[in-house]
Amino acid sequence: MASADRYGGRSRGVGITAGRRRAAKPLLALFKRGMRVALTTHVNADGDGAGSAVALWHLLTGRGVRAAITNPTPFPQRYHFLLKGIERADKSAAAVKHLERADAIVVLDISDTGRLGHLARIVEQASVPVACIDHHASDGTLPPGPRLVDAGACATGELVYDLARAARWQLSPEVARGLYVAMLTDTGGFRFSNTTPRALQVAAHLLQHELRPEEIYRDVYASEPEGKVRLLAEVLETLVVEPANGLAWMTVPPGALERHGVDAVDLEGIVEFARSIRGVRLAILFRELANGRIKVSLRSVGELDVARLAQQFGGGGHQRAAGASLEGALGDVQAQLLSAARSVARC
Ligand code: AMP
Ligand code: MN
Ligand code: MN
After folding, report:
1. Domains in the chain, CATH or no CATH each
2. Pocket of ligand 1 (CB under 6 A)
3. Residue range 287-303, pLDDT digits in tens
């Protein structure tokens, strides 16, 4: 429904490109009343994965589709407020069962199975259509199915918005909130380079659906567990700056997450402290994953392409935000990565 803002303006929503409208069609044709659709995203869902999934769950459920959120890792505590009243939507604890029974799968916020954790094999071997809604530049490796993939979107949430627009589906406040959280978090609070005029236009339209931005800000950014702030203090202690190379890097001390009773999602944003230093062109955060691999988060300022750097190590991502997970001891991985980082940062 077009809704009035406080200045009396009314918005019918933001127009979508012909390309996205075309891409949305086969996806919409897939959804049938009564069918089972499993929604999944990458390990340690972020605000985009979580918000897009909740929004799509509401959109599909409202049309009689039996949707279920089936993530490879538990729905992050930080985004649990999105599930209030619809806790039943999250079937991540029984994801395998739900994926195996699904009539279609929708993969959100990734275009390949590399970051689907223990669900990768099930999605790869699925005999049902595997749809994908994503804004990553990577060449996808997913089983066949409709694709709504556009690296020009600021977040997967923007593409879910387009899907709803293409279908002329009404946005409920719950849908709008999920999409707003997706776009808010993937743009770093509407600050990063993906904060396009259109991203703000879509966000403005979403706000017209009874959203309170201050309340959402509080839910997402100002409801931190004490442990997160203490973890931040520990990670900041490890900061190394190499001004000559335009490089800053930090390390999550082994066992720090457990010690402070927080989970990986609480690391979101910490790497920004390294990136915020004047003269830094490349910021890196290292941490050990539960499986013993080393996760590297890469952020750049300006033209430096960290997706290319991440690809050298089997990872990927966006030009200014990328990551990889490497085999090896922490010290060895650091030495290897820093050496590559110094050569690209110096250029
Ligand atoms: P992160 O540093 O985990 O916040 O990730 C930043 C971006 O890098 C993500 O949005 C992904 O696009 C990408 N990324 C992170 N980790 C990996 C990985 N192991 N493999 C491929 N891409 C990754
Ligand atoms: Mn993501
Ligand atoms: Mn995203």
Report:
1. 18-220 (3.90.1640.10), 226-346 (3.10.310.30)
2. 114-115, 136, 297, 315-318, 321-325
3. 999 899 999 999 999 99
